[in-house]
Amino acid sequence: MTRVRQLSPRRGVSALELLIVSAIIMILVGLTAGAVLRYTDVQHERNTRLTLQKLDRLYNQQRSAALEAADKEKIPDPIRATAGNDQAARILYKMYCLQREFPMSLAEAQNPGPGMQPVPSFQSLQGKGLSPDKESAALMYISLGLNRSGTRVNLDTALSTREVLTDAQTGVKYLADDWGYPIQFYRWPTDNPQFNPGNINASNPQALLTLDAVFVSPGRNGRLGLDLKTAASDGSSASFDNVDSLSLRQR
To answer: Residue 15: CB partners within 8 Å, gap ≥ 6?
Structure first.
């Protein structure tokens, strides 16, 4: 006689088991997403560091060319009258030349110094209505591409499409970090001890010529934490996050 084995009915999955499995899946997804975000952030920081170093090199090439030209140019009479003697006049003129060639704002570009004419290329930004941070980044983009004493940089090959963005509303190109935020340029960051450890006074033209300019990225959260004119800390947490912690600057 053949015995027939009775199969017991399949037990269903309990609600508790479903909750446990769902919780495990959510934890794994969270861990994976966190790892991806951290990896992406590290890549953004690495790329931004490289961009800042590249801009620093390009700027120093153009700065040297601008100062070389300033040594040969005629000093405007208003500057000579203010300085009092030829040596002081030449130093003062060099300071104003750097302000003319590497302005941080359109206001500076339009008023470079006593008896000096603005650089025509910067006037293309007139009336565009750019935000101050984009204005600074756009001015530096134009400045780095100017021909100075035979020194000219082809920005189309020197910088990538991630380092130069175009403002959607105005069509103006500007320098950007890897997060897509405008990079800020500080010609003489006298009011920030991080950038001015020697405490150089802004009223000393000769000393200003020895102070290194800096390029700063707002970092991952897009908050610069620095005054756009003086580089002084605004006292916010962004000052620490983006300048001290990430050190997204060359130097």
So the answer is: none
Three-state SS for 226? strand
Report yes or no on 19 lying in a domain.
no
Q: Is the residue at 158 inside a domain?
A: yes
Q: How many domains does the chain have?
A: 1
Lowest mean pLDDT among 14-28, 79-93, 94-108, 148-162: 14-28
Instruction: Provide the domain limits for residue 231.
Output: 43-245
Instruction: Answer yes or no: pTM beyond 0.85.
Output: no
Q: How far apart are CA 80 and CA 99, in angstroms?
A: 17
Instruction: Give the torsion sign (CA, 155, 158, 159, 160).
Output: positive
Residues in contact with 30: Cβ distance below 8 Å, sequence separation at least 6, in sequence order:
none
Residues 6+ apart with CB under 8 A from 138: 125, 130, 167, 172, 173, 174, 175
Residue 147 phi/psi, 5-degree rounding, is -90, 115
Q: Strand, coil or helix: what is 234?
A: coil
DSSP per-residue string spanning 125-179 = GTT----HHHHHHHHHHHHHTS-BTTB---HHHHS-TTTEEE-TTT--EEEB-TT
Residue pointed to by tokens 């560091």? 49
Question: Is residue 4 one of the residues assigned to a domain?
Answer: no
Radius of gyration of the chain (CA): 27
